Amino acid sequence: MANAKSAHMTKTGTPARPRRNFYGRIHGKTLRPSQKEYLDQDLQALSPGAVAFDANPERRPLDLKSRFGGKPVWLEIGFGGGEHMVHQAGQNPDVAIIGCEPFINGVAMLLGKIRTARVDNLAVYPGDVRDLFDVLPDASIARAFLLYPDPWPKKRHHRRRFVTPEYLLPLSRVLRPGAEFRVATDISDYVRQTLEQVPRHGFDWLADGPRDWREPWKDWQSTRYEKKALREGRVPCYLTFRKQ
């Protein structure tokens, strides 16, 4: 996504929400009545906190301890249809997971899965992860996932990828020392850029041999994007990093 522009100022003279360009999709096909119901009835209660900037004009840090009762907090960046996020929530009830996704159709799909699975350790931010980074406290996230991000295949669009300083610098800030950062992609050039950029921002790549990036994690839940990649003959790659 594009570079951030200068921030506004609040009445008190403190920086408010930065003006940012956003190039991804926000809306897709017309939502079904049930999906509209999920958004109307469930989304607000699943907010990770005061990340609605109209209510938080000075970008005060979220109080994650009060919101999640002191549980370790994980972050999934771009959860797609929510398959992996709901699976992880069910397998890890002692962890809280924040999912960030600007594509409203994906948000509606996730809310439906949450109702079905009846998991209660999830929070949802339906917007740009950079805005969420603005209000996450330093060293507050214990694990982060970036699964099948938008590949932006054209070279001139590579600056829009997540694995660039605009995203990796704030990610590094909010991750705890020793936190795990998992990246899954089926795009070989995205793997190249990930391996070039992520270690430059305070991460170690955890790999001793080919199995460490060719085989998924033991607690992996395949997503719709991975299944599409496999159908089309692309090979997934699973990269694990640790915050230094």
Keywords:
244 residues, alpha/beta, globular, 9 helices, single chain, 22% strand, Rossmann fold, 9 strands
Spatial sequence of strands, sheet with the most strands: 5-4-3-6-7-9-8
Name the beta content range.
15-25%
Low-confidence stretches: 1-15
Amino-to-carboxy terminus distance: 26 Å
Number of domains: 1
CATH homology superfamily: Vaccinia Virus protein VP39
Mean pLDDT over the residues: 87
Structural class: alpha/beta
CATH topology: Rossmann fold
Q: Summarize the amount of helix as a percent range.
A: 25-40%
Summarize the structure.
This protein has 244 residues and is α/β, with parallel strands linked by helices. The chain is 32% helix and 22% strand.
Strand and helix layout:
Elements: E1 4-9, E2 15-20, H1 33-42, H2 64-68, E3 73-77, H3 83-91, E4 96-100, H4 104-117, E5 122-125, H5 129-135, E6 141-147, H6 165-174, E7 175-185, H7 188-197, E8 203-205, H8 211-214, H9 224-231, E9 237-243
Parallel strand pairs: 3-4, 3-6, 4-5, 6-7
Antiparallel strand pairs: 1-2, 7-9, 8-9
